[in-house]
Amino acid sequence: MISDTATLADALWRATCYASVCQLHLRDNVLLNRPLTTQHVKERPSGHWGTVPGTAWALSHLALTAGLLDHRVELVPLLGAGHAGVVQLAAAWVTGELGKLRPQFSPDAEGLRRLAQAFPDVDGMGAEVTPALPAGAFLGGRLGGCLPFAQGAALDSPGKIAVPVIGDGECETPTTAASWLAQRLLPGSFVLPLVHLNGFRMGGRSLLSAMDDDALRSYFGGLGWEARVVHVTTGSQSDHVAFQTALWDALESTLDDRPTALVMRCVKGWSAPVSLGGRDLLGTSDLHKTPLVSPRSEPEQLMRLAHWLASYQPANLFGEDGRAKGKLAGAVAEARWCSFEPAEPPRVGSPTMAPSTRATTFTDAVTGVVRRHAARGDFLLLSPDELASNRLAELADEHWAHELLAEEVLLEWLAGWTASGRRGALVSYEAFAPLLTSGLVGHIKQRRLDGARELPSLNLLLTSYGWHNVHTHGDPSLATALLALRAPAVRVLTPADPTRTAAALDEAFDSLEGVNLIVAGKHSRTAHPVGTIAEEHRRGLAVWPHLSDEGEPDLTIVAAGDIPAAVAADAVDYVRARHRCRVRVVNLLDLTVLGDPELWPRGLSDQDVDLYLGSHAPVLVLTLGHPAAVWGLLSGRLRRPVDVIGWQEPAGPMPQRQLARSLGMDRAGVAHAAGLLMASREVVR
Ligand SMILES: Cc1ncc(C[n+]2csc(CCOP(=O)(O)OP(=O)(O)O)c2C)c(N)n1
Ligand SMILES: [Mg+2]
């Protein structure tokens, strides 16, 4: 059986490499049934080749092995490489999946010609990994997240094994490096990492490549993984047999819950031309991208390209119409692509609590809601060692809660977990949440792409921020960065008290397609009147009647967050008395309400601006985060005097009270800003 599969894998591998080389270089003659001329090649071929042969090898074996397993166990490949798009497209074209999605790229000669001509702008899919195609559940681009994403996806997914294909360069990233050890926290998460050890990163040798097989086994062994090292040298039948054998062994030990990694040693970009112009290519970093960048003007390059394509024996793979034949047809029939796609749509329900359910402390608020959601059995709570410090210690021992001091790993766990339709949240210090920026941006991109499914939101509860904390623990940059993306999925929720925190979490946990940043302090014990909570949730803001004068105000104070709400409540009578003006206080739950309604689902229309903020009153916004984030949302659309009091990085450590005073986040600061605003309105008039 192994030798039969090896033969089929060889056909699939050759076809996938062939279709990759076509995409990178050709515009015509894609079956090579005529001598290759300059007319057939692209003017300026470009793109990444180095990762192709090893990744194609992995995908070919995994798809065939998944076919043999026939639903008993699902093998789900995930691509970690920075530039595996071309090989993903090639594998999807060969196996007909691309043609199902985009009929113009049918699995025949015309389909391949069109694909080659389109690359690198393949009909909305670009040239990089896409969720629309097999093995695309992890978008990649950004190296490091694939292994932990696979761990999160495979957690509590019986019958599925995630197979992240990870480069040796990628193994140098902190996120991947931390994930090996982190597996200890997730027994029963069946992950079989395939380390694609091709010797090189982008510009030089990888660190792993300097280790011999024993050293590799010791390295992985110390981290808790058994490494099975398999050598793929020329791509011969015996290489395929050795790989199949190692893969089956590794599958068996993975299912025994013995973490096992398959380390595939090969040469980066093998099967490409070994030299050019007398210069060695093989065994150098020059094969990271295609080396044949000017085959039109360089006859040697054209000749090398023709030999390169011919080396995969296309006539033996494709019939005259370009359809798979012989062993390749057999391989396509056997191959199977598995995914983490949930059998049913995500189980989101309606909120678990009545809006008026009161919570007196942050601890009550969070533990109550989290427990109610976790009781549904599909919830994961993650934290970088901050549950106890955030007064949530009682959650730490729950089987659905995991703490690991590696923010980036946790984000990928959450993303992998939710990618299979389940719900969860990450509790992090606001100051260190910017570590998550790059990962979140990647997931936001991925979730916007064609082929992405409707998934439960990524929820982040950000606590312990600088207004209450030490100098080193203040940095609201994550919210600022995500708002700057202008992605409608992002919401920044700043509940004013524990009851509102509970309500915000309750709604967020059951929401779909979003990235919810909930910024709430663990100290707050204030309880504002609850009458407006339903409106705050529905609309993202509400006028607080208990603090507001009736009718049109002379000044509107918008408070976004627990400290701003408390400061507004404290300052309002003072402002009223000092400036003899009518004041309205608006509680803002969702910062994106201030943004353009064309872009943000809850953005205020011009009529709503007048309704909530008053038709002409100057506006003073108090925010927990950077004023720049608010200015960016407003973009001048209020057409009236506006000021924003928020976080600015202090020059050095200072007592909290002094910090608040220096930034204007206190009664005196609010009164001062209010006076200036109202004076400027007089000038504007
Ligand atoms: C976080 C991050 N840093 C840098 C890059 C740029 N980059 C793209 S591919 C690559 C080298 C990857 O090497 P390896 O993981 O060994 O993959 P291979 O191409 O050899 O399969 C780098 C550094 C990136 N994509 N992501
Ligand atoms: Mg590499």
From TrEMBL:
SUPFAM superfamilies, per this entry? Thiamin diphosphate-binding fold (THDP-binding)
InterPro entries recorded: THDP-binding, Transketo_C/PFOR_II, Xul5P/Fru6P_PKetolase, Xul5P/Fru6P_PKetolase_C, Xul5P/Fru6P_PKetolase_N, Xul5P/Fru6P_PKetolase_ThDP_BS
Xylulose 5-phosphate/Fructose 6-phosphate phosphoketolase N-terminal domain boundaries: 10-329
Q: Cite a single Pfam family from the UniProt record.
A: XFP_C
Look up the coiled coil feature and give its residue ranges. Answer: none
Q: Which UniProt keywords apply?
A: Lyase, Thiamine pyrophosphate
The UniProt record lists the keyword Glycoprotein: no
Residue ranges occupied by any Xylulose 5-phosphate/Fructose 6-phosphate phosphoketolase C-terminal domain in the UniProt entry = 535-649
Tell me which cofactor or cofactors this protein depends on.
Answer: thiamine diphosphate
Membrane spanning segments where? none
Lyase as a keyword of this entry, yes or no, is yes
Q: Which family does it belong to?
A: Belongs to the XFP family.
UniProt-recorded name of the protein:
Phosphoketolase family protein
